[in-house]
């Protein structure tokens, strides 16, 4: 088979949408160089000859023009397909209740994912801007420092701009908390933007669109990486939320105990032990019914 026969076969396979990806690349290359013009015209003339004889010449010309236009459109479409960037492939990492994971991102950054959490990031994670999304739960980020910006996104449209740092992000219904251990981050939501310094705790109320920053210690926020609960004068309602987040249970607080304060450090390995420590410290009673824990007087 000579060169002309090969090109004729290539045009025929292309026009019948039977070309492989490799053939499509060759076709577009030759078409752009004008090496297929003669064969394309011959192919289209053949299509005209196959039209019914009773059609008027003007009608036949219109049909030919339409066929030619379609051919050009197909070529343009094929070139777009070849030159367009491939859609980004994302990686989803999930943890079950009581499970934690350490994730090493493609750029060298490390993420520790707390229990009952979900993180999504692009498989490549390259370019001038690197974005990951914490879709649920809690994560500790240790971000690799380079000239490109690293961004963490959350479902409530909070954006955390990072440049070489360590920080914790926790999502709860209606509120996102960001604790910065070292480095520097800027948190933005809507038109608001706040820069954080080490030791800052930012709380974002998504319902009101309000951000507030206070000072806090790293002990509570980093404790879960060591499989510990650490509470420092925490409201019992916040303790209950922490238990719900990690164990995947429901905590019901009765007898107006929600504002009672609790301070303590305890391993997360055994829920019953955690409940005993809380009960003895606050002198309250606890009960378990299936997946519900009840705290009462």
Automatic annotation (TrEMBL):
Domain Protein FecR C-terminal: 229-294
TM annotation in the entry: 64-82
InterPro entries in the record: FecR, FecR_C, Ferrdict_sens_TM
Keyword hit for Protein biosynthesis: no
Every FecR protein domain range: 93-185
Keywords for this protein: Membrane, Transmembrane, Transmembrane helix
Pfam families: FecR, FecR_C
Coiled-coil residue spans: none
One GO MF term: sigma factor antagonist activity
PANTHER family for the chain: PERIPLASMIC SIGNAL SENSOR AND SIGMA FACTOR ACTIVATOR FECR-RELATED, PROTEIN FECR
Stated name of the protein: FecR family protein
């Amino acid at each position: 088979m000579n060169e002309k026969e090969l090109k004729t076969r290539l045009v025929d396979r292309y026009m019948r949408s039977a070309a492989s990806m490799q053939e499509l690349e060759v076709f577009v290359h030759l078409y752009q160089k004008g090496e297929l013009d003669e064969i394309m015209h011959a192919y289209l003339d053949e299509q005209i000859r196959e039209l019914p004889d009773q059609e008027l010449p003007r009608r036949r010309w219109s049909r030919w023009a339409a066929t030619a236009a379609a051919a050009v459109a197909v070529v343009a479409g094929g070139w777009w397909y070849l030159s367009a960037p491939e859609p980004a492939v994302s990686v989803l990492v999930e943890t079950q209740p009581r499970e934690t994971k350490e994730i090493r991102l493609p750029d060298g950054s490390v993420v520790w994912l707390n229990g009952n959490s979900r993180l999504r990031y692009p498989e490549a994670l390259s370019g001038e801007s690197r974005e990951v999304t914490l879709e649920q739960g809690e994560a500790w980020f240790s971000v690799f420092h380079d000239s490109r910006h690293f961004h963490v996104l959350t479902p409530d449209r909070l954006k955390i701009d990072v440049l070489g740092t360590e920080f914790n992000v926790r999502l709860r219904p209606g509120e996102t908390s960001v604790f910065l251990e070292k480095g520097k981050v800027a948190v933005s939501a809507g038109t608001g933007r706040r820069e954080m310094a080490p030791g800052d705790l930012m709380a974002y109320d998504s319902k009101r669109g309000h951000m507030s920053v206070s000072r806090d210690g790293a002990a509570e926020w980093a404790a879960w990486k060591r499989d510990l609960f650490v509470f420092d004068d925490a409201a019992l309602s916040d303790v209950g939320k922490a238990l719900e987040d990690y164990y995947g249970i429901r905590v019901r607080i009765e007898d107006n105990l929600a504002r009672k304060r609790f301070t303590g450090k305890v391993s997360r390995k055994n829920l019953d032990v955690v409940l005993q420590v809380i009960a003895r410290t606050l002198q309250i009673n606890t009960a378990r019914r299936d997946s519900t824990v009840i705290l009462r007087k």
